[in-house]
Amino acid sequence: MSISWEVQDLFVSSAGSTGAVHAGGAIVEQGCSIRFARFPAANGIRELLIRKSDGGRAGLTVRRTEDGKILVCAVARRSPAYLAGLRYGDEVLCVEDTPVQGEQLPRVRELVQQNVRNSIKLRTRDKPRERYLTIARDVEKGYGFRFVDGEITFVRPNTSAEQRGLERRLQIIEVNEEVVVGMKDEDVEAIICATGDTVTLCVVPVKVYRQMFAR
Fold first, then answer.
1. Is residue 90 a contact partner of residue 126, using CB atoms and an 8 Å limit?
2. Are residues 191 and 159 in the same domain?
3. Is 130 helix (H, G, I), strand (E, B) or coil?
4. Is 50:118 a contact under the CB 8 Å cutoff?
5. Ranges for the PDZ domain (predicted)?
6. Do 105 and 163 have their domain in common?
7. φ, ψ for residue 152, nearest 5 deg
8. What residues contact 17, with CB distance under 8 A and at least 6 apart?
9. 30, 20 in Cβ contact below 8 A?
């Protein structure tokens, strides 16, 4: 399902905006603050020490791809894993210094269960070619972009979106730290419009998205 061009005009021009938008029959007030805590990593590799919650959980779920990669497919908001810097789509390379590339999920689960400390150590690789862009809303030109099924289809010239490097054929993965993969466009639009005057997007090339995440 694709969002209408009329609704997406909010991202191209905000003239006449009253400070609230209608999305899916609900009014979404603007002004939510941006909370962004993902820091760059050297060569995309991260060494994470994840503190477990009182119940011994870290707040993440993984899956195994056909080529043997262990990918993070869910991270609970504000969970220990999330606060440590783990995000949707990251690849798990090692669990407690034991490589897991090519391993079956039961083996990965076994390594986690064997860990009886209050923390667990992971080595991860960021999503391939991921980029985080913070885009300011122009009073007349809006955010300056449109998207269909999460894919950027238009970027208006001479806007913050263009200046920050947003371009066509990029897939939106996160909006202000919230994973939007699989969401309807109108729901993504509501999240963007509720942020106020700036929005932070995590994007990857559409080709990368389809190869690694779509299934």
1. yes
2. yes
3. coil
4. no
5. 47-114, 132-207
6. no
7. -65, 125
8. 10
9. yes
User: What's the start-to-end Cα distance of the chain, in Å?
Assistant: 17
Note whether residue 201 is domain-resident.
yes
Output Rg (C-alpha) for the chain, integer angstroms.
19
**Contact between 203 and 37 (Cβ < 8 Å):** no
Here the CATH number for the domain that contains residue 166 is 2.30.42.10
Count CA atoms within 13 Å of residue 113 on its CB side.
6
Same domain? For 61 and 115 the reply is: yes
Residues 109 and 147 in one domain: no
The predicted-structure confidence for 36-93, as pLDDT tens digits, reads as follows 456 767 788 999 999 888 777 888 899 888 888 999 988 887 888 988 889 988 999 9
SS3 content of the chain, % helix, strand, coil (to 5): 20, 35, 45
State how many domains the chain has.
2
Task: Identify whether the C-beta of residue 14 lies closer than 8 Å to the C-beta of residue 137.
Answer: yes
CA distance 144 to 122: 38
